[in-house]
Amino acid sequence: MAEVTEALRRGVRASLPEVARIGDAGLRERVVEAWALALAGSEVARIEAIPASGNPGTPALARGTQADHIRGVARLALAVADTLAARLGPLGADRDLLLAAALCHDVGKPSEVCPRNQARWRADPRLAGHPALRHPLYGAHLAL
Predict the structure, then answer these.
(1) In angstroms, what CA-CA distances link 81 with 3, 14, 37, 84, 132?
(2) Which residues does 22 contact at the CB level (< 8 Å), separation at least 6?
(3) CA 122 to CA 62: how far, in whole Å?
(4) Which of 139, 125, 124, 113 is nearest to 54 (CA)?
(5) Global pTM?
(6) pLDDT tens digits, residue range 119-142?
(7) Nearest to 112 by CA among 33, 34, 50, 30
(8) Rounded to whole angstroms, how far apart are CA atoms 122 and 120?
(9) CB neighbours (10 Å) of residue 30?
(10) Buried b (16+ CB within 10 A) or exposed e, 34-52
(11) Nearest-10 Cα torsion for 54, 56, 60, 61
């Protein structure tokens, strides 16, 4: 795995400006670090360079980048929480944690789009049929 650099961290912050809205400084930096670690372990240097599709080989977004998708999910997560709170009253949701989770929901994607991983998975029939386990599972590993 390549080194996590300050350039990768800056790139994450530029790609996902919503990170700055996380009030808990430690959580904010862990989000940046998780993405920087994911990028360092791949051939992808920026979130925008990740193909904007659900899984490799599936249709891409009609427009926008992977960063646009992640940012949209973050906005939707906060909007759902706000809408429920307006309808049901205070939920006690931790908005920092909600935002961090939404921003990290695809943190495993850089590993999944790596040509070397794609070749390895195609070569091993035990792995070839399980694309849904790849980026979600690796993302959980990175988050931990």
Answers:
(1) 37, 25, 29, 5, 26
(2) 28, 31, 96, 99, 100
(3) 27
(4) 113
(5) 0.86
(6) 877 787 776 656 555 676 677 777
(7) 50
(8) 6
(9) 15
(10) bbbbbbbbbebebbebbbb
(11) 30
Whole-number pLDDT of residue 31: 97
Copy the structure tokens of residue 101: 């989770």
Three-state secondary structure string covering the chain: CCCCCHHHHHHHHHHCHHHHHCCCHHHHHHHHHHHHHHHHCCCCCCHHHCCCECCCCCCECCCCCHHHHHHHHHHHHHHHHHHHHHHHCCCCCCHHHHHHHHHCCCCCHHHHCCHHHHHHHHHCHHHHCCHHHHHHHHHHHHHC
Average pLDDT, the chain: 88
**In which residue are the tokens 């990175």 written?**
142
pLDDT > 70: percent of the chain: 90
- Token pair recorded at residue 19: 């990170």
